[in-house]
Amino acid sequence: xxxxxxxxxxxxxxxxxxxxxxxxxxxxxxxxxxxxxxxxxxxxxxxxxxxxxxxxxxxxxxxxxxxxxxxxxxxxxxxxxxxxxxxxxxxxxxxxxxxxxxxxxxxxxxxxxxxxxxxxxxxxxxxxxxxxxxxxxxxxxxxxxxxxxxxxxxxxxxxxxxxxxxxxxxxxxxxxxxxxxxxxxxxxxxxxxxxxxxxxxxxxxxxxxxxxxxxxxxxxxxxxxxxxxxxxxxxxxxxxxxxxxxxxxxxxxxxx
Length: 256
Known about the structure:
- The protein is α/β, with parallel strands linked by helices.
- It has one domain (12-250): Phosphatidylinositol (PI) phosphodiesterase (TIM Barrel), CATH 3.20.20.
- It is built from ten helices and nine strands.
- It has an eight-stranded parallel β-barrel with strand order 1-2-4-5-6-7-8-9, surrounded by six helices.
């Protein structure tokens, strides 16, 4: 495993919330499915429980993917562990639980080349310090890129560890130039674009490349779109359809 964000010539297939087309998102089952499929990396989302424990979950509210309602930040880890986080997807996964960050990292350690940990929700800046500490304790800091729409969170991580890998999520073209500027000259940073932005405006990818800034994209499920983005210089693809994108990757020229 490399401690750089990613080699510039390497194509990386990133399982979005784990293999979320095959198992309930952001669960250990989804991570295990991504590993079994051969994903190069896994992306997941982080919130902070009421007790301060970082947990892996996407939404602010519990209702979409569990059998509970209300904000995730109002439940302790123990309370969250009593919820069903898999039955919404399939009865096969009806006993799947919300994993802590520690559990997720332990499951993935040594099985994927990189983790993209998206910081979604936190109560205070000290929560971000705990996220760093858990990642370091699991010996995954060198293999984790923290990404977020909340760039102040990334600033906090960098203030605690200047060498931490970060990715600035851009879901609106108006934020692109600032993200590029933040990354320029820093090989441990990348811009994580909504794929549609680059598909609609290839010039944006060109400007990013001109500044020697690495790019990732989300969420790409169609191999045809992946090919267009590849031609624009993208080498990191976040996808729900891991098998389809891995098959596409195998058709690329040898060595990529």
